[in-house]
Amino acid sequence: MIQPGLARMGRLLQHTALPWRAVHVAGTNGKGSVCAYVSAMLHAAKLKTGRFTSPHLIDRWDCITIGEEVIDQSTFRRAERTVEDRDSTGAIGASEFELLAATAFTLFAQEKVEVAIIEVGLGGRQDATNIIEHPLVTVLTKIGKDHQSLLGNTIEEITSHKTGIMKRGVPCVLDATNPLNVLQVIEATAQETGAGPLHQIPSKELGEEAALRTLFDEEDWEQHQQTNISLAYCAAKLVLQQRAPTTPTSALIDGARRARWPGRLQRLDLAVLTGRQETVLLDGAHNAQSAEVLGLYVNKNLRTGQHPVTWVIALSLGKDLRELLSFLCQSADNVVATEFSPVDGMPWVSPTDPNIILDTAQLLGVTGLIHNAKRNVLGALKTAAGIAAGGPVVICGSLYLVSDILRLLRDKR
What we know:
This protein is α/β, with parallel strands linked by helices. The chain is built from 17 helices and 14 strands. It has helices spanning 7-12, 31-44, 73-89, 96-110, 148-151, 155-162, 180-193, 204-207, 210-218, 223-243, 250-258, 271-274, 288-301, 321-326, 354-363, 377-388, 399-412, and strands at 21-26, 49-52, 64-66, 69-70, 115-119, 137-140, 172-175, 198-201, 266-268, 280-282, 310-313, 334-337, 370-372, 393-396.
């Protein structure tokens, strides 16, 4: 159950010292990627880092890293039991996410982390992670419509929630490719709270940094990926200015090269699961904004031959299917719909009925083959591989589906 508010989190952590400082990241899309890059950059700069992102990828504890390594299960379980005991003894009634965030924060203190990179779970202002009072830097990534039932129906309302992480005197790095009305809310919040200075990305100053230009020339990154890396680079530089001013920024570039963030435009070999020799594209796009980016990427990079795209899609309940699928599917495409598995620690998350996905695709004019794989993700992959016959396969719609795919691969290997 999602329970906005900071009171329960405060009670869970009232006897826990939090000596580490934070980079706090909010937004609709790109949060996890920015966190991964900031963490990798600061680790390369020899700072002891922790990272907390959500949702987890395969196991519930892999959302917490120390020094770029996933916390081991036994250490996680010990800290989790401590937090759960506090919740039980104090009759706090914390949500699953609050317990997880408090576990992460407790581990960061226990492991003597210097800088923790924290991804907001939902919104910002009332999110459990906003118990952080004195971050080193805040970051606002691309903002769009998602979770409207909790954050509001307008982009201005949603932005207002996300700007709740901004703090007086704390620099804020923001994605300046956001719409004007989003930027206006951010600037108004900065004036009201005294937050800032604001660092808008892309910026001419950052664009003139030779090391960053060289990195982008060497790597085949899409524009939104370059923007997220630039956000991370600016945030990491601001951290270095406060925590390690003599560290050369070249270390940050080295960290960016090493960073890995699965499930985002990821080329994946599924031969061990399906027998298919060609790679597939795996992406966690789960709202209209990220679906539009994915659709443009697919059109540019995968629609190059005679084969239509075969989609494997699972979606969380409550998504705007028509808008999302309109960015992805073309008339001749094939669609295999499935359901992701129950999500550990997130019992409120439910998948959309595959029949509804397929009906929506047909209403949008899809005339290719369609298939309901029900709750059989492996069956969905095998069916898609057979239908595609060597043509492009794209798996998307949910980070929970990404988790299922990566878990199947791990277990098979």
